[in-house]
Specification:
Blueprint: H1 6-17, H2 40-54, H3 65-68, H4 71-86
């Protein structure tokens, strides 16, 4: 289980969408969509990463900006799903 998934999520985004360049990476609370880090294809890649890394399947109605628009939102979503699964 991940106590803090933020570093893992941040590393994935930097490596896969910014090609290892941390300089354009916004703060963890900033929108990945508004900062043009994620587009629709990127969201699908992110969902696959989340499912593979954290061991759960995302429902279609969970693939929304409220869950995926910043590192903080993604981490909070992952923690809520993994905590529910372990309860």
């Amino acid at each position: 289980m991940f106590d803090n998934p933020r570093p893992t999520i941040r590393t994935f985004i930097i490596e896969n969408f910014l090609f290892g360049d941390e300089s354009p990476m916004p703060e963890d609370v900033s929108s990945l969509i508004e900062n043009e880090i994620l587009d629709s294809t990127g969201v699908l890649e992110l969902v696959a990463f989340i499912e593979d890394t954290f061991g759960f399947t995302m429902a279609d109605d969970e693939i929304v900006p409220a869950n995926l628009d910043s590192v903080v939102k993604i981490a909070d979503f992952v923690l809520s799903k993994t905590l529910r699964a372990s309860a």
